[in-house]
Write a structure and sequence with these properties.
By secondary structure, the chain is an alpha/beta fold. It has nine helices and nine strands. Helix 3 (about 50-60) packs across helix 4.
């Protein structure tokens, strides 16, 4: 039996926005939702480049405090410099260098965050690796080391980070976690098998983490979801002409959602609500309709 679903989406998501005019467009957020982010504490991995950098700077622009993590401190400095160039108060961006594949690194990162705050409101798992080059048939020709590095970064790293952040996230009345995935998690494209598998596993991790946290903290407003950021010009995709800021509108919509929002669902950056495995598309808009 095949299940067909009516398409569901959230209108009003902005795709083509420029950081320079953030005060004017607020990445498509209504003023009240923009204000929901002010004073909140967020932790962003992969924040030295690409989507992670864009998300971190947008949150700082909204008045949030943002802990930015990545393996390369020089890239984190570039993130801060980019924000300053566009008039964002980058004193809200606190660099916390870390390799998400390492328990020891993450423990140090948590201690650094705890020196500043006792709680986090949100976590965005943005760090990832692309499919390595070297063979057109990676599932039959890729080395064990390359497989392990990819899966450890794209899946295990997000699990370790989420687990490490949970004591700080659970200190408040609720929290938000986003896992940045890919349509590769729905695909079986030849030549990208290990990457496809990593993103499919990440999809399941996000939904399963959402269900477990809801069961563990029944009195808290928990919203843990998976977002497909699509293709854009990042270190992983130098050939794209799309700005990585295209993901920001949907990210902020999810992170600013009031109590009772989605938990364990899948979304695309353009506002589409996605289904995955046994999980149907979230049935209602994420923005209030006037």
């Amino acid at each position: 039996m095949r299940l067909f679903q009516k398409s569901v989406s959230t209108p009003g998501i902005l795709q083509n926005v420029h950081l320079a005019s953030w005060r004017d467009h607020r990445f498509g957020l209504p003023q009240a939702r923009w204000e929901q982010l002010r004073g909140r504490n967020f932790w962003i991995t992969g924040a030295g480049t690409g989507y992670g950098r864009c998300i971190a700077l947008a949150l700082a622009a909204a008045g949030a405090r943002v802990f930015i993590s990545g393996r390369r401190i020089e890239k984190l400095r570039e993130t801060v410099d980019e924000g300053a160039a566009f008039g964002i108060d980058v004193s809200r961006c606190i660099s916390v260098p870390a390799d998400i594949r390492s328990d020891e690194n993450l423990a140090r990162a948590i201690k650094s965050i705890q020196h500043v705050t006792t709680s986090l409101y949100g976590l965005v798992n943005s760090a990832a690796l692309p499919q390595p080059a070297g063979t057109a048939f990676p599932l039959t020709g890729q080395s064990t080391a390359a497989w392990t590095d990819l899966l450890t970064t794209n899946v295990t790293g997000s699990w370790l980070t989420s687990k490490a952040a949970l004591p700080l996230l659970s200190n408040g009345d609720g929290f938000r976690i986003l896992f940045l995935s890919s349509f590769a998690g729905w695909a079986s494209t030849p030549g990208f098998g290990p990457y496809n598998i990593s993103k499919s596993a990440l999809n399941t991790l996000g939904a399963s983490f959402a269900a477990e946290c809801a069961a563990r903290y029944p009195g808290k407003d928990i919203q843990i979801n998976v977002l497909v950021p699509g293709e854009a010009r990042t270190e992983m995709n130098q050939g794209s002409t799309e700005s990585p800021y295209a993901v920001v509108s949907m990210v902020l919509v999810l992170l600013s959602h009031p109590q009772g929002g989605p938990n364990g669902f899948f979304f695309n950056r353009d506002g589409q609500h996605l289904a995955f495995a046994y999980t149907p598309a979230y049935p209602q808009s994420l923005l209030a309709v006037d």
